[in-house]
Amino acid sequence: MAFRGRGRGRREGRREFEEKKEWIPKTKLGQQVVKGEIKDIKEILEKGEVILEPGIVDALVPNLRSEMVYIGGSPGKGGGTRRTATKRTARMHKSGRRFKLSAMVAVGNEDGILGLGVAKSKENRTAIEKAENQARMNVIIVRLGCGSWECGCGGTHSIPFKSHAKEGSVRVTLIPAPKGVGIVGCDAVKKIAKLAGIRDIWINAEGNTGARSNLVAAFFEALRNLNRTKGGL
After folding, report:
1. Which residue has the higher pLDDT, 110 or 83?
2. In sequence order, what are the beta bridge partners of 138?
3. Over the stretch 92-122, which tens digit does the pLDDT of each residue have?
4. Terminal CA-to-CA distance of the chain, rounded, Å?
5. Distance set, CA 208 to CA 89, 212, 229 (Å)
6. Angle between the N-to-C axes of helices 212-225 and 187-196, in degrees from 0 to 180, rounded to the nearest 10
7. From the CB of residue 70, how many other CB atoms can be counted at a distance below 10 Å?
């Protein structure tokens, strides 16, 4: 029993050390953030700067939250599919099958900042960590507004106008909704919409929506397209 306790203490100490490990910037953009020359993530995104270090986003958006997107699946008891955090793929080699795990993670501050990352690795934990770092480096500004003719409150609870996107066979259409409607969509998309700060929206998806990776990627691209469309709110 004593040995087990010492092992647990070592693991907890190692975890605390990893969490307290200081971020040392390696890029010019990261050095500007550490020096205090850049204090807002939107300043970087509006200029079109490329973020190459996840520590930049952690420093500028301290209240960032992350959500796993369950893109994998395994046969469940009594039929059906049980969702898993990672998707396993196999590739044949002369020495036999080689497996890889894919993970998808979304990050956001629930106030107009959203990121999505996908990564692969041979280990489950490594794939998730790499996907989370990738999501931090892929953050975008989500254009919030009230584009519903039924509401017209001028707030930021929804999106300003319709948006479309396509990924694989999945086509997604985002429609502004009035206050009180909520997020009308599947559970996977609801989580990401909340991370973006959207509280009311209609989400229409067509195609093979069972492929969650394509569905979530199309939803993320539709939100990105809101910034590519010119026009007043």
Report:
1. 110
2. none
3. 877 778 888 999 999 999 999 999 999 999 8
4. 64
5. 19, 9, 27
6. 30
7. 18
Q: Alpha-carbon distance 115 to 57, whole Å?
A: 10
User: Which of 88, 54, 58 has its CA nearest to residue 74?
Assistant: 88
The answer to whether 56 touches 30, Cβ cutoff 8 Å, is: yes
State residue 160's pLDDT score: 94
Q: How many other CB atoms sit within 10 Å of the CB of residue 20?
A: 7
Q: Which of 15, 157, 137, 118 is nearest to 64 (CA)?
A: 137
Between CA 61 and CA 83 the distance in angstroms is 30
State whether residue 30 is helix, strand or coil. helix
What is the pTM for the complete model shown? Answer: 0.84
The span from the CA of 123 to the CA of 115, in Å, is 23
Contact yes or no for 200/119 (Cβ under 8 A):
no
In the 8-state DSSP scheme, what is residue 153? -
Neighbours of 175 (CB within 10 A): 16
Structure tokens that stand for 103 in this block:
């993970």
38 touches 44 (CB < 8 A): yes
Contact call for residues 160 and 153 (beta carbons, < 8 A) = no
All structural domains of the chain, each given as residue ranges with its CATH number in brackets, are 142-225 (3.30.230.10)
pLDDT of 198 strictly over 80: yes
Question: Is 178 within 8 Å of 201 (Cβ atoms)?
Answer: no
